Model the fold of this input.
Amino acid sequence: MRVLLQRVTRSAVRVDGRTVGEIGQGLNILVCVMDGDTEKEAELLAAKCAKMRIFEDEDGKMNRSVLDIDGEVLAISQFTLCADCRKGNRPSFSLSAPPERAKALYEYFAQKLRENGVRKVDTGIFAADMQVDIQNDGPVTIWLDSEIFKQSRR
Done:
């Protein structure tokens, strides 16, 4: 599973001109479920995202999490984060999970964010054509891949 965290002052997602998710200060999280991912990866990354200290404290240091600032999260499914661009100029998405499995784990990830204490978690609509409006703060953008955490436990 891969996620791209973006610290934001606000973020919104629209489908067919209708806002389906919107947050104020917090995290915009793009979520990619890959083939072979399990609930364990979703739990691990949800906890990591909730606790990631990328918000400034009173001294201007990135020392506070989205939980610490009582922030919000907009989680959006984005299978293109698994793009394999090693051959040619057209990305392959063969590493992505089958749609039914990806949807279930994406929704599970959002639920785990809530269970980790994030007070508001909005989502996009899985597999929809979405327009995302992101007001980056910093900008601060962090890439997390559950593979890295698996390797560090070996």
Summary: The chain has one domain: 2-140. The chain is about 25% helix and 40% strand. Strands lie at 2-15, 18-23, 26-32, 55-56, 62-64, 72-77, 120-123, 130-145.
